[in-house]
Specification:
This protein has 15 helices and 12 strands. It is of the alpha+beta class. The strands form 3 sheets. Strands 6, 7, 8, 9, 10, 11 and 12 form a 7-stranded antiparallel beta sheet that branches. Strands 2-3-4 form a 3-stranded antiparallel beta sheet, covered by helices on one side. The protein has a two-stranded parallel ribbon with strand order 1-5. Helix 5 packs across helix 14.
Length: 490
C-alpha cells in the first residue's frame, strides 16, 4: 500500500453521478459548446500558430494537459461543495469585451488571451470559488495556450550577444561586434532570431511551472524553481552561442557553421532541460503527510440566474460582433499621397527594404539625392492589418539592430532604429502611422484609434510610413521626419 496515498472517506451513495446532477452536467456542456462556437475564430487562429510556429508547438498539449491535471485532483475537487458563483463574472465580462475588441481591431493577441481566459473562467463559474481554488494551477496553466512571447526575441538576441561577447573576450578570442554581428578572424556570426533562445525560454518556463506544481509543495520552493526555469535557459543560451563561436574559432570554421549549430542547439536544449529537472530533484522535499479527504455527497448546485445571465452575455457579445461585421463592410477610400511625382527615381544606393505583409498598395520614393528612402503602404483592414508584429522594419537576414534613440518632432516622440548590414551599411529607420490625416508615432495610439473606429462600425483603414536615412546624426533624421510630416499634414 502506498504510504503517501490519501485516505478517502465516502458514503455509499455517489452524489456526483449523472442521474443526481443532470442539470449540472448539461449546464457545463452547454457553456463549453457556447465557448467553442463564440471563440471559434480565436481557437482556429491559435491552432494555426501552434502548427506553423515551432516556438508554440507546445500549445496543442496545454488544454488537454490542464484537464488531465484536474482529473488528478478529482478526489480533492469532489471533496469541496460544487456551486455556481457570480464572482467569476469579473473575469468573464472583461474577457468577452476583450474578444469583441480583438475581432473588431484584428488583434490576434486579444483574441487568444480572451479565448483561453474564458475557458477557465467558465469552469470557475460552474464549480464555485471553493472548488476552483483546489484546481487553480490547472486553470491558470491553460493560459500557456496563448501564443505570446515572440516580442521577447530582440531582447533575448541582445542578451545572448552581450553575454557571448563577454565570455569570448574573457577567453581571449579576438572579435569585432557590430549590432548583432560578431566577427572573429575566421568568419562572421549573426545572433539571429533562431539564436535568441526564445523556444528554450518558453519551453523551460512551461516545464518548470509544471514540475513545480507536481513535485514541490512549499510555495517558496515553487517560486524559486520557476524563477530558475526563467533564468537558467537565458544563461544556458549565452553559453550555447559562446560555445558555437568558440568551436568555430578553434576549428577554423570547420565545425559549428551552417546547420551544425542548429543541431548542436537542440542537443544542448535537451541537456538544459535535464539539468533543470535535476535542479528540481535537488530542492524537492521528502515525502509529506496528506490529510484525509471526505467526499461531499451533496448535489451540485446550478444557479439558474447566473447560468442564464452568462448565456445572455454571450448572446449580446455575438450580436455586437455581427453588427460590427455588417456595418464596417465599406472600405475607407484610398487617400492620395504626395509621392506620385517622385516615383520611379533611379536610386540603387540604399539596399534596405522593409518586410510588410499583405498591404493594399505600396509606394517607394527617394529624397535628398538618394540619401533618403521613403516607403509607404495603405491598409484597408480588410484581410490585412496596419499595426502588426508581422511587419518588420528591416529584413533580419540582411540587417541587425545596433541601437535605438528617441527624437521629438512636432509634439510626437519617434523611435529611431539604428541598423547595420552584413556589408557594414548603416541606416537610421523611423516608423509612424497616418490615420485620417493624423500622425501617430507609436503602435499603441495607432491601434487604439483604429479600435475606436472599428467598435463604432466605421472603416478603420490607415497608412504606414517608414523612412530610411543613410546620413549620420540625429539632427539629419529629425529634419527629414519633420519635412515629411509637414507634407502629410498639409
Amino acid at each position: 500500500m502506498n504510504k503517501n496515498a490519501v485516505p478517502i472517506i465516502k458514503n455509499e451513495v455517489g452524489g456526483f453521478s449523472f442521474n443526481n446532477n443532470k442539470a449540472f452536467y448539461f449546464s457545463c456542456l452547454t457553456l463549453l459548446f457556447v465557448w467553442a462556437v463564440f471563440c471559434w475564430q480565436g481557437i482556429v487562429t491559435a491552432i494555426q500558430i501552434w502548427y506553423g510556429n515551432e516556438i508554440f508547438n507546445h500549445g496543442f498539449f496545454i488544454v488537454p494537459g490542464a484537464f488531465y491535471l484536474i482529473y488528478l485532483k478529482r478526489k480533492k475537487l469532489l471533496a469541496q461543495p460544487i456551486k455556481t458563483t457570480p464572482l467569476a463574472l469579473v473575469v468573464v465580462i472583461p474577457a468577452l469585451l476583450l474578444y469583441v475588441t480583438g475581432v473588431a481591431g484584428h488583434v490576434q493577441l486579444f483574441l487568444h488571451v480572451a479565448t483561453f481566459t474564458l475557458l477557465p473562467a467558465l469552469i470557475w463559474l460552474m464549480l464555485g470559488t471553493t472548488a476552483a481554488r483546489t484546481i487553480m494551477f490547472p486553470l491558470v496553466f491553460m493560459l500557456f495556450s496563448v501564443p505570446v512571447g515572440e516580442q521577447l526575441i530582440p531582447y533575448l538576441q541582445e542578451i545572448a550577444a552581450d553575454g557571448s561577447v563577454a565570455l569570448l573576450r574573457l577567453t581571449g578570442v579576438p572579435l569585432f561586434r557590430s549590432g548583432l554581428y560578431i566577427e572573429i578572424p575566421q568568419g562572421r556570426f549573426l545572433v539571429a532570431e533562431a539564436c535568441s533562445g526564445v523556444s528554450f525560454f518558453i519551453a523551460s518556463f512551461v516545464i518548470g511551472s509544471l514540475y513545480a506544481y507536481l513535485n514541490l509543495v512549499s510555495s517558496k520552493r515553487r517560486i524559486v524553481f520557476v524563477l530558475i526555469s526563467l533564468i537558467f535557459p537565458i544563461l544556458a543560451n549565452i553559453v550555447r552561442v559562446y560555445g558555437i563561436i568558440l568551436i568555430a574559432y578553434w576549428t577554423d570554421m570547420e565545425h559549428a557553421a551552417g546547420a551544425d549549430h542548429l543541431i548542436y542547439g537542440w542537443f544542448f536544449f535537451a541537456f538544459v532541460i535535464i539539468c533543470l529537472l535535476g535542479i528540481g530533484e535537488l530542492i524537492r522535499e521528502a515525502g509529506f503527510e496528506k490529510v484525509p479527504l471526505i467526499l461531499n455527497q451533496s448535489k451540485c448546485y446550478v444557479g439558474k440566474t447566473i447560468f442564464g445571465f452568462t448565456l445572455f452575455l454571450f448572446i449580446v457579445s455575438e450580436i455586437w460582433l455581427w453588427n460590427i461585421a455588417n456595418t464596417s463592410t465599406s472600405k475607407r477610400e484610398l487617400p492620395p499621397v504626395f509621392l506620385s511625382n517622385l516615383e520611379g527615381t533611379n536610386c540603387n544606393d540604399l539596399t534596405w527594404q522593409p518586410v510588410v505583409i499583405n498591404a493594399d498598395s505600396e509606394r517607394v520614393a527617394y529624397l535628398n539625392e538618394c540619401s533618403i528612402k521613403l516607403y509607404t503602404a495603405w491598409f484597408s483592414e480588410e484581410d490585412n492589418e496596419l499595426v502588426s508584429d508581422l511587419h518588420r522594419l528591416f529584413d533580419p537576414e540582411s540587417f541587425s539592430l545596433s541601437g535605438t534613440k528617441r527624437i521629438e518632432v512636432k509634439g510626437h516622440a519617434f523611435t529611431v532604429h539604428e541598423i547595420v548590414s552584413v556589408k557594414g551599411e548603416k541606416l537610421s529607420i523611423v516608423r509612424w502611422y497616418e490615420f485620417e490625416g493624423s500622425v501617430m508615432s507609436d503602435n499603441v495610439s495607432a491601434k487604439l484609434t483604429q479600435l475606436a473606429s472599428a467598435l463604432k462600425g466605421e472603416p478603420s483603414g490607415g497608412r504606414l510610413w517608414i523612412l530610411a536615412i543613410s546620413e549620420t546624426g540625429i539632427n539629419a533624421t529629425q529634419k527629414a521626419v519633420e519635412n515629411i510630416i509637414n507634407k502629410i499634414e498639409k
